[in-house]
Design goal:
Blueprint lengths: L6 H16 L8 H6 L35 H7 L5 H13 L4 H9 L2 H5 L5 H9 L5 H13 L13 H7 L7 H11 L4 H11 L15 H7 L15 H8 L6
Helix pairs in contact: 4-5, 4-11, 5-8, 7-8, 8-10, 8-11
This protein binds fe (ii) ion (FE2) (2 copies).
Length: 252
Amino acid sequence: MDDAKGPSELAEEDEFQRMRELGDFMIYRSAINKLADGEWSDEEAKFNLGPLKPSLIGEDHRLPAMPEKPTLVDFFKLRFGPSKQHLLQSAALAQKNDLPEKMILACLLHDVSVIAFFRPDHGYWGAQMLEPYVDEEVSWAIRMHQALRFFPDESVGYEYPEAYAKRFGEDYQVEPYIQRDYDYARNHKWYMSARQICLNDLYAFDPDTLVSIDQFEDIIGQHFKQPDEGLGNDNTPASHMWRTLRRPANAL
Ligand SMILES: [Fe+2]
Ligand SMILES: [Fe+2]
């Protein structure tokens, strides 16, 4: 009953209504982003839910609108940033090197997590995002390229990336799980598929070449199981990741 509400409560409700009408929504940043930016506080006293404000839920109008039933190509065009060129150039190189179509798709998607989701453990996240939609060998190779990148293979001319020595230091030692997964992958029947990703990855940055996703539409059509309901509207163990990508700032 309104009569029971005090003036401050009524004013708050009024403001809530006004913010909603103006489309003025609270945009929350996910905890993982705050943590990554060092915005961490362990002072319990600072914990405060704050006043309830209209919060973003549903389509994010700051971002390009997506079709009702988005496809992988829609995500490429509308959600992946400019660094998607790395994926496109890697796939173009794989095409030039006459790799099988399935492997061209693997190169096209190998860093999907870095481009669109999370950087840490990107091979593992990327494989999970793709598993329901691609051949098992493709997601396996994407998962394992993360470990293989740190280990040279002279038999195919793959050297330890110079950039890693510069970025992580000459004396960088991989973590035990990377060593473990490398040892496992080294003796696996699909080892060379993961290695092919590394081989077509390293030299793929060229700021003067712009590759379009349209070039790969046939390969995607053949080898990516696009769900009829739209990527994210379907019900696989990875659908929620695509939904998050579509609406990355949803309050919940
Ligand atoms: Fe990678
Ligand atoms: Fe890469």
